[in-house]
Amino acid sequence: MSDQWHHSLRHIRGADLSPDTGQTSGMTRLVAISGKTVHSSKLWMGRTHVAPGTASGDHHHGDTETAIYVVSGRPVFVFADGDREVRLETEPGDYVFVPPWTPHREENPGTDEAVVVIARSSQEAVVVNLPSLYEKP
Question: What's the whole-model pTM score?
Fold first, then answer.
């Protein structure tokens, strides 16, 4: 059927995620749901991996809201509040919300890989890499 109430569901296997999406140094993003992969119009979803003892580059996601779910590891999310850096130390099962235009980075001070699932309020991954957390978006 082709009416608005009868569309096919799409199944994306974890093993089939693609790195063909916006990237930031120090991490690997893999796309599952996007305008390109499943023709979504309002949602991007994927997974990010940060190796032990590394940190991503500073970046923001433009006008999109980002929701993060920590799957494994203990990633630290760092953002600027005025002239100081704030560190959110997370563990598996935690969620983090990143507002639009908010410069941040992910760090993994642990000895295990950190894996998070990301959802964004856009059909593509908006990634704007920055020279620092204090750069105006």
Answer: 0.91
